[in-house]
Amino acid sequence: MSHAIQERPVATAGPRRSLSHARLPRWTPAAVAVGSIAAGCGIGLAAGWHSKVQWGLISALLFVLATYGITTKVEGSRQAKDRVATSLVWVCFVLAVVPLLSLGWVTISKGLEVLDPYFLTHSMNGVLDAEAGGGLYHALLGTIEQVAIATAIAAPIGLLTAVYLVEYGGGRLAQAVTFFVDVMTGIPSIVAGLFILATWNLMLGFGPSGFAGAMALAILMMPVVVRSTEEMLKLVPNELREASLALGVPKWRTILKVVLPTAIGGITTGVMLAVARITGETAPVLLLVFGTKLINPNPFEGAQSSLPLYVYEQYAVGTDAAVARAWAAALVLIAFVMILNMVARGIARWKAPKTGR
Question: What are the φ/ψ torsions at residue 305 (nearest 5 degrees)?
Answer without folding.
Answer: -115, 175
